[in-house]
Design brief:
By secondary structure, the protein is α+β, with helices and mostly antiparallel strands. It has 2 domains: about 130 residues, 60s Ribosomal Protein L30, Chain: A, CATH 3.30.1330; about 150 residues, PurM-like C-terminal domain (Phosphoribosyl-aminoimidazole Synthetase, Chain A, domain 2), CATH 3.90.650.10. Helix content is about 35%, strand content about 25%. Strand 2, helix 3 and strand 3 form a beta-alpha-beta unit. The longest helix has 19 residues. GO terms for molecular function: thiamine-phosphate kinase activity. Catalyzes the ATP-dependent phosphorylation of thiamine-monophosphate (TMP) to form thiamine-pyrophosphate (TPP), the active form of vitamin B1. It catalyses: thiamine phosphate + ATP = thiamine diphosphate + ADP.
């Protein structure tokens, strides 16, 4: 007997909720934020061939589909509450559904984020998730708070996901162990939820790196009405990327997407607090530049020389 829409939902995506007032099964879910909290809401749409390759394992795809949304909550400093799932499938493949649900719920449970509703339909493979979080009123991290003199930081390392993509494209060649590492970075990003919450009251602005470090930092600069100077050699990179030619290193760290690290700014006087927040969250952070009065983004190379770097990052309607 073929698996129908409602049987699919019941078998793979219906679980009892513990924090939501009402979850899957009614026309609307009911979420109750704690007193004094504001809801933080974000939506991402993932399309096969545009956001992920057809070769990705279903459990990794389930993880990433939620991770990119949790990363938005992290950039806001919010604590996850729940999410909805919109799923378009060419056909209900039960082996695929089992793997996808396993990866999705493994990450959801780690962050206490419950599936509370959604929709399924037949069509090209596409995944849309809307995530809900809570943040104390007036304490959300925004893109508009950076001020001249602030330090610019980034969490983790940059560029491995882009290097993996270029490996798939045939532009670079990597030995098997190195390829496995960068492929994991591309397919299993780790949302920095704990770091975002630890930075509340310390960071002046934040954004997550989805389309490329330079472009995403540019959103902060434009919203804040400031500029920035970066030190290209300070951008954190893995040992795998560090073995690539300097041009590839700069391309991947500055403009590579899919890192889902946090870029944030904080006053220079609060460096000790930033380091303490990073230790609390268990995530390394690196100071990579400063915020300037002069608009625009300047990238310095070795010996402080200004680099004429290509800073164009991913754009859904401009990038092939």
């Amino acid at each position: 007997m073929a698996l129908g829409e409602f049987e699919l939902i019941d078998k793979y995506f219906t679980r009892p909720v513990r924090r939501a007032a009402l979850g899957v099964g009614d026309d609307c879910a009911l979420l109750v934020p704690a007193p004094g909290m504001q809801l933080a809401v974000s939506t991402d749409l993932l399309i096969e061939g545009r956001h992920f390759l057809s070769t990705v394992l279903p459990d990794r795809l389930g993880h990433k589909a939620l991770a990119v949304n949790l990363s938005d909550l992290a950039a806001c400093g919010a604590r996850p509450l729940g999410f909805t799932l919109g799923l378009s499938l060419p056909q209900p493949d039960e082996a695929w559904l089992e793997g996808f649900a396993r990866g999705l719920f493994a990450l959801a449970e780690r962050h206490g984020c419950e599936l509370v509703g959604g929709d399924t339909t037949r069509g090209p493979l596409a995944i849309s998730i809307t995530v809900f979080g809570e943040v104390p009123a007036g304490q959300a991290l925004l893109r508009s708070g950076a001020r001249p003199g602030d330090d610019v930081y980034v969490s983790g390392t940059l560029g491995d996901a882009r290097l993996a993509l270029e490996m798939f494209r045939g532009a670079v060649s990597l030995p098997g162990e190195d390829f496995d590492r960068v492929r994991r970075a591309m397919e299993l990003p780790e949302p920095r939820v704990a770091l975002g919450q630890a930075l509340r009251g310390i960071a002046t602005a934040a954004v997550d790196v989805s389309d490329g470090f330079a472009g995403d930092l540019g959103h902060v600069l434009r919203r804040s009405g400031v500029g920035a100077t970066l030190e290209a050699e300070s951008l954190p990179r893995s040992a795998v990327l560090a073995r690539q030619p300097p041009e590839w290193q700069r391309r991947c760290t500055l403009t590579g997407g899919d890192d889902y690290e946090l870029v944030f700014t904080a006053p220079a006087a609060r460096r000790d607090e930033v380091e303490a927040a990073a230790r609390e969250a268990g995530v390394p952070v690196t100071r990579v530049g400063r915020i300037d009065v002069e608009p625009g983004l300047r990238v310095l190379g070795p010996e402080g020389r200004l680099l004429a770097a290509d800073l164009h990052t991913f754009d859904h309607f401009k990038t092939p």
